[in-house]
Structures are given as C-alpha cells and as structure tokens.
Amino acid sequence: MLMRPFALLAAAAPFAFADVKFTTPAPAAQLTAGSSLSLGWVDSGTAPSISDLASYQIFLCAGGNDANSYAQLAQLAQGTFAASNGKASVSVQASLGASTTNAYFLKMVSVATAGGSVTNYSPRFSVAGMTGTFPANVVAGIGTISGTAGPATENNVAQNQAAAQDDKYAVPYTLQTGLTNIANVADQLSLDRHYMVAETKSSHNLYANPNIQHVKYGEYRISSMDSLESVLAGKYPAKAHAAKVAAYIKNKPAGDDGVIYLESQKTRMIEDNDEPQPFRQRRYFYYLSGCALPDCYLTYDTRNGHLTLFIPPIDPEAVIWSGLPLSPAEALQRYDVDAVQPSTEIDAHLTAIAGQRTVWVIQGQVSDHGSFLAFGNTDFTLAKEAIEECRVVKDNYEITLTRKANAISTVAHTAVLKKVKNASNERELEAVFLERCVANGCREQAYHSIVASGRNAATLHYQKNNEDLAGRWNLLLDAGGEYGCYAADITRTFPIGGKFNRESRQIYDVVLRMQKECMEMLKEGVVWDDVHARAHEIAIEGLLELGILRGNKVEIFEKRTSVAFFPHGLGHYLGMDTHDTGGHPNYEDPDSMFRYLRVRGKLPAGSIITVEPGVYFCRFIIDPYLKDATHSKYIDETVLNRYWDVGGVRIEDNVLITASGFENLTTALKEVEDMEKVIRS
Length: 681
Description:
Blueprint: E1 9-10, E2 20-24, E3 29-32, E4 36-43, E5 53-63, E6 70-80, E7 87-91, E8 104-112, E9 117-121, E10 125-128, H1 136-142, E11 154-155, H2 228-232, H3 238-250, E12 258-263, H4 283-287, E13 297-301, E14 306-311, H5 316-322, H6 328-334, E15 339-342, H7 346-354, E16 358-360, E17 377-379, H8 382-390, H9 396-420, H10 426-439, E18 444-445, E19 450-453, E20 474-479, E21 481-483, E22 486-487, E23 490-495, H11 502-519, H12 528-546, H13 553-559, E24 608-611, E25 614-616, H14 619-626, H15 629-632, H16 637-640, E26 648-650, E27 653-657, E28 662-664, H17 672-680
Parallel strand pairs: 3-10, 12-16, 14-15, 16-17
Antiparallel strand pairs: 1-7, 2-4, 4-7, 5-6, 5-8, 8-9, 9-11, 12-13, 13-14, 18-21, 19-20, 20-23, 21-22, 24-27, 25-26, 27-28
Enzyme class: hydrolase
Protein name: Xaa-Pro aminopeptidase
Keywords: Aminopeptidase, Hydrolase, Manganese, Metal-binding, Metalloprotease, Protease, Signal
C-alpha cells in the first residue's frame, strides 16, 4: 500500500469503505490532537461487501449531517482494498478545527470493482487540544446535532436515478441504433503480447500530496493478475482528482471554502463552413470530469466534496443528424461524478451554492462572468495552478491509459518498420502509422507525426511528411497515439534500406548510450538538470571518439559547444498533453544548455517523463558555431562533413518514475539488430 502525507499524516494500512461498520473510533470517543488515532472496521454485512470494492479515499470532516452543514477538513489517505487489513493509524493536526464535543467524523468513499461508489461515515468523536476554528456553516451544523451518529450511508453502486430531461431521451426515433456523435466509446486493443499493469485492480489508485516534490511513494510493480482492460473498466477517477486539486487549493491563503468551476471546450464551426472544427477537450476540465463532451460545465464544492456535471439538454432538431446525445442518467453511470444536470441549470446552481465564498475559475475559459456575481470572491489563477501541479503525479488509472497509448503506438511503430523498405515517400509511412493507431483504438494523435527522412531529421519538429525516400539513409519517426486523452510520445530512428551505414550506426550508438545511461539515473528525487547534463557529457565523449569534436571534454562542456549537436532538452513530462504541465521550464535561462529543458528540479515518484536524447547535423544550428572561434576550435569540419546525411538521430521512451528507480512504459524496438531484422523481413 502506498501512503500519502496529507494534512493528517496517514501511517498505516487503508480502511474499508463500502458498507462498513467502524469499530474504532467508538461513538463519542475523546481523542487528542497530535496523538495517534487508531481506526478499525469490519464488513457490516450490507451489500456491497468489502470484497466487491476496489479503492478508497478517507477524509476528516466536521459539522452537521447534511451535505451543506459539514466540511471536509483534510484528506487522510487513499489506496486499495487489496492491501487492507481492517485498521489504520493517523495523527490529527491541531490547526484543522476547534475542540468541540462530537464535532468530528470520518468520511470514507470507496469505488466498487463493477463501477459506482459508496460513501460511509464513522460515529462522531471529539478531539482535544485543537487550536483552529470552524467555518460558520460547520458551527451551525454542529448545533443541529443530537447523538453521535454521522451522516447516512450513500450507496451509488447501482445508481440509476432519473435526472431532469431524462424523459426526453425515451422519445422513439426509428433510425437511432445507438449513441452517436459525442458518445465517448473507446475501442479495445487486442495485442499478441499481454501488457501487464500495476499491481492493483483499482481504477482509483493512490494520489499525491499537493507538495509533490516531497511525497514518498511505493513501487509500481508489474503484476500478472491484471490486464490494461481490467483497470480501464472502472471510471476515470474524476472525484479523486477534484479532491486532490481542492487539497492543493486549501494549502493556499483563503483557499479553505469555495467552488471550483470549469467549462469544457465549446463546439466551434470551421470558418465559412457548416462543419464543426475537430474537437479536443480542455484538459483542465477533463482532469476533473473524465468527460469528453463539448459545451459542458462542472462544479466541485470543496465544503462537501460534491462534484456536479452539466451536459447539454437534448436538441430535437439535431437528433435527426447526429442521433440522441448522452442522457443525464447515462452520464451519471459513465462518469465519476455525484450528479448530472442539464447545462441550462448551471446559473441557478451557482447562485444556490455561492454564499460569500470563493469561486475558482480559469482565465480565458469562462463564457459568462455574470454567473459569479453571487460569490464573495472570484479567483482566476489558483485553479489553473492547482490542476497543473496535481497533474504531474499520476494515479494508476492515468498510468494505465499511458500504457495503453504506448501499446497501441508500439504496434503502429512496428508496422512502419515493416513497411519502410518498400515505401517511396514519407507520407506513405505516416499513413501506415495512423491506420494502425485508429484500427487499435487511438482515433486521436497526441501530436502531429514527424516522419523525417535523411536530412529532414535534423529539423526537430519537421512536419511536411511529403518527400521521397530515394537516396536517403535513415528515417526518424516521432509519433504517438492518444488514448482516453492520454498521450504516448515515442521516437525511433532506423535505416530505410534495412541496415545502418557506418556513420549512421556510429551516431545511433552514441544516442542509445545517452538514453540508457541517463535512464539508469532515474528515481524519485533525482534532479532532471543533472540527468540532462550527463546526456551532454556522454554526447561529448561519443563525438570525441568519432573525431567530430576535438580537444578537452571538460572545456567543450563548459563552453556549451555540444549544444550545436544536442540543442533541445532531454525530455518533458507526459500526460494529457504531450508537453505536460508542471515542469516549470525557464526559456529565458542564459545558459544555452538548459534553456529548452522543459522540466527543472526534482522528479517525483508517479510522474511520467520522456527520455529523448538526440544528435543532429543541422546546418542552421551548427554553422554559427563553426563561425565562432569560441566553438570552432573544438569541431573538426573535415570529419563533420561525413555526417551531414545522417540528418539526426533521436530515441525517445516514456518512463514512469518510482521511489527506487523507474519503469519504461515504451516497448517499441530500439536495439539495432532487432530493428534491422524486422525491416529486412
């Protein structure tokens, strides 16, 4: 089990949240701030049983028994039931609240293996020695309490309650054979290889403390028990993500009580056309919803942890063209949210929950500022910051989506290897890659493919993909599919004719050594700047051996001459975006070696980063170095002239950082003999 140090520091195994009966704390128990709080539970005998549950989250709450009269004060822990032994120990931080009799209870949210969630509550207890205060609604809620019972259990495992507008979805439509247009249905991949995933079946594994640089994690181990599909059968963990973002916000000034409000991407039409533009969901919205529909809204109330999704109501005129859209009931079944309402209800909902609280929104992604007039404060910066930071550390579901994107992309990369020898143009190979991705479930690409032959490979983001292959030595393929809004980003360089020539093989071996040695440095807490610097050292050593560089390797490193051949950063965070958030690059860095490094600082466990060293022979970059006496003395132009047609070599894998090392999520072939064998076959 993996633990996370939240405001209350969890120090033991997970709890059960299903239909559970707590044995400790006892009703009206008297606890002390800073001391150990022992928790215990048993299966209550009410469905669902503990064995039917996958994962849990635990919160400390205070206040009344209805959702509007209590507050979640802190997240204690989260994990999977597989590691549970019916007990746990936590320590209560004194500043979280006041010492009011029977004000506190625990909220336990669990996700069933078959889908849906259950929320249980412990008996009430007191905590002496508390030094904080409660919000007004909590004080009022405590005043309504008699006895020691917490709120009633909420069982949503079989939730099928009709929502507003549901009746309209029952209108017969003889040509309608299924959900179309915006229904988010994913294809399944069948591979010869069995791809294994992290050791839990939970679709909601463990989530990070907002202070992501200092969290300790366990290992993500490979298991023979679970396939990718068994993990992805669960819901995208939107509520856990929302709670994680809220915890980050609560650590900021004035971040205690409010509402997170986000909007999905809008339907936009192609200019001078009646066709919609290709749709790409806003990643901030998706992270808190798992919903890929346009024209939606969501709210997350940090007071009670309630996540509400708003989807467009049915438009009868659109049905004949696009079929019936997703209904509220279907959306509630599909997405990890507490309620689904028509989007026409969003303004009334915001007014009802506003009070004198803060609403956190994202600048530039809000369509109607008037909706927030009922709130005491509107913050346009903190929600974006919180989501970007929280996205760095991935949970098991996100890691599994990345595995699947990699698995499908590997199939496509292999298909290109098989085709390249008989292809005549770059566009043919791009078509092969796209076809294999779409056929296996990646209908979207994470980015525009780079299919660069010969000297085109010296252009880092070459995208013409339309030149003939005749007479060229190598092909650089940088391409990755997107699955469930999560990206793969894979680069391979290989000989078009089936065998590297001498110069190409020499450069390839240098780059492969750069990648392998840098990858061996990876683990939680490693400074990415140091790994990047080591890549340059290896490049210098290799180019000195080939005679392209000459002189003292320390001087070459200090003068930054190697940047002429390796001008970009070693890698970047990967997630919903190819160049994912949270890396804190400094593109104004005066040091040319680090200016384009997209991640700075320490790598946390649970992050996914690309490792993509390269050596390039780009005249536009190298010629200024040849004209500068500071650098030209270290470059042998006579030797260099033999390598221009190599173009560029880049090798890129997607790597999961763990507490003691790493796991390479990319399995596409990269050993020379393996690639050449496939090409020649």
